[in-house]
Structures are given as C-alpha cells and as structure tokens.
Amino acid sequence: MVAEHLAGACDTLDFIALTNHAQKPVFFEQHRMIEQARRILPGFPIFFGLEWNAPMGGHAGLVFPNGEREAENAYAFAAAHDRLGATTPSSVEAALDHLNALPAEERPVLFFNHPAAGQWSAESINRYLAADGASVEAAALVVGIEALHGHQAHAKVAAMDPYAYPGGAIGGLVDQVYACQRPFSLLLNSDFHVHKQERQPDYPLGVFNHVRVGVEAGHPPTPEAIFAGLRRGRTCASQGHWLDLGDFSVDDHFIGDTWMGGAGVLRVVFEATEAIEKVELIGQWQPNVAPAALECLGSRPAGRSEWTLEVPLDAQGFVRLRIIAESRARPDPGPPAPKHFLTSAILLDARRDR
C-alpha cells in the first residue's frame, strides 16, 4: 500500500510526513514504511511522524527530523506520553520536557491537528506554548495548527462551515496566538486513512489539502530548510492547486516576519487558475481591537491579480490572507464544498522601530 499511497505525490508536493496513532500496533512498524517510501522516492524529503493522542486535547501532529534516531525517538515518546498508548498518564509539561531533552537536531515540530469544536481550546494551546518555553530561534517544538479539517472528502466534514472552523476562523485559535506576537504556521493536512478507503474514501497525498512552506530564496527545500520554515510560521495552507501566491508582504517583510515600522505598503500578488470569490485581509491593526476582516477584495476572474494597501504607521497586530475560490467543485469522490487558500501571518509591531 505504500507505493499506492505515494503515487503522484512528488508531482504536487515538496515533502511528505507520514503519521499513525500510537495505540495501533502498526505504528511501531512505521520505520519499515518510511524506509520503503524513501526507496521509492530517493532524495525526496520524507519525514517520520506521529498523530499523538495528546493531553488536554484531541490529536496533535509530531514530525521528527530525519536521522538515525527518528523512529527510536518517536516510539519512546509515544510509549511514555500517548494518552491511549502509554501505560501511565502523562501531562503537557512532562511530554514537552521529554521532547526538549532531545538534542536540538532531533527535536520534532508539533502542531494541533483538526481542531474542530471541543478538540482544542485557547487554554490548552496556551499551556502548550508555556510548557514549550523555547523561542522560535531556539528550535521551538510548538509551531502551528491545522486551519481546516484534514478529512477532506467526507460529506460530514465538507458540510462544516469553513468560516467558523476554530483553527483558521477570524478571531479563532490561530489569531489568538498571532495577537501575542508569536509566529505560527497554518497547516492543511491529508488525514487519509489507508485502512478506511473502502467505506470512507478520501484524497491521498497531494491531491487536495497541502501545505507550502517558505524557504530562503534560492535554497532548495531541504529537510532542514522545511523545519526552519515551519518554526518561523512561513506557510500557506491550500485546498486544491488553483492558486499561486507570488507576493504577500509589508515593506518587503513576508509571511513569518515581523514588520517594525516603515512606509507601510502591503502588497498582494497571485495567479489563479479559477475565478476568485473574494480575498480577505484578516488581522488587527491595534492590540485592543478584536481580529477582523480588515479589507476585502471582491470577485476576480482567473489570472493574475495585484492588490496594494496602506498599513497604519503605528500598527501593532498582524495580517494574514484568506482567498476563496468561486467554484465549489472538488476532485472525485468529494462532494462540492468551499475551497480556501490561507496564509500564516505577518506580524506588525511599529513600536520596535522607536
């Protein structure tokens, strides 16, 4: 099934992370699947991951850096701290202490997975961030959250209101992190279950949900560069392959950066293969004002679009984009539903320029 799972993925993706649940015995055979995947796609970045049954929430994704101890580290962590797989209860603090005790080059990244209502809360996320304790530059563990649900072709999930989904909603969980001036990656994953395809078909890797990670200009998407981009909050989360974002910046400060004052010219450039319903600039100009849709660009035909706005010179907050396709058509076997393209935030802190 590994070869079938990977078919065509390298045509639409720059890297892959494979995960499983620790309460399933097959998880502890995952190193064999990873080895097979790397033989099938030599040189293509493939990461060892865990869908962790986490304290204070539902599922969290852990992705480990490539290395000789990737499987050993994942298995040891799961055996000690998985809510359904460990023999004794753990805590947020104990689990993150375990991961932070690893050598820096072996520490994974952690993101909050499919945060539907009741799965994750601002309280639980804040506790994870406090327990992490590391700055982004010091190889932080907690790096992001899934914007929308990863079960892409399920009728029940497709019927969810994407505007209200807690991960990427205006004023939702990710905006509460941005309001604290912390970079955070917005993600979209393929929650494709190989063993469920006969009764719950879904899109395999690269067909629909995917994440684009920003790496330094002129550098290839190496495993190290991908991890650095995730930790810096340099991501776009896309449902489908219908939009290419050419620019989203404030005075040449890009996604994951902090703008610290200047002319305040915000620029958006994108190329779409489908008509656009609308483009929303989401965020806040001042910390005492709730996040909102700050500006909106109406419907646009397929093709190239450019949009320039002025940022208040005293802005202290963040901005991010949500772009929505006009068509609701999704690949088979999915039912029609909205298609979103979301960016992580550019942080705004004009005070730092004083």
Structural class: alpha+beta
Percent of residues in helices? 10-25%
Unreliable segments (pLDDT under 50, ≥5 consecutive)? none
Strand-residue proportion: 25-35%
Name the quaternary structure: single chain
Major sheet characteristics: 8 strands, mixed
What distance separates the N and C termini?
58 Å
Number of strands: 18
Query: Mean pLDDT score, rounded?
Result: 93
Computed over alpha carbons, the radius of gyration is 20 Å
Order of helices and strands: HHEHEEHHEHEHHEEHEEEEEEEEEEE
Report the principal-axis shape: globular
Count of alpha/pi helices:
9
Describe this structure in words.
The chain has helices at 2-6, 9-12, 30-40, 70-81, 92-100, 122-132, 155-158, 173-178, 223-231; strands spanning 16-18, 46-53, 59-64, 109-112, 142-146, 185-187, 209-213, 235-239, 243-250, 253-254, 258-259, 265-272, 276-284, 292-297, 303-310, 316-325, 340-343, 346-349. Helices cover 20% and strands 28% of the residues. It has 354 residues and is α+β, with helices and mostly antiparallel strands. The mean pLDDT is 93. Helix 5 (92-100) runs parallel beside helix 6. It is globular and about 55 Å long. Strand 1, helix 3 and strand 2 form a beta-alpha-beta unit. The strands form 3 sheets. Strands 7, 8, 11, 13, 14, 16, 17 and 18 form an 8-stranded mixed beta sheet that branches. Strands 1-2-3-4-5-6 form a 6-stranded mixed beta sheet, sandwiched between helices. Strands 10-9-12-15 form a 4-stranded antiparallel beta sheet, with no helix packed on it.
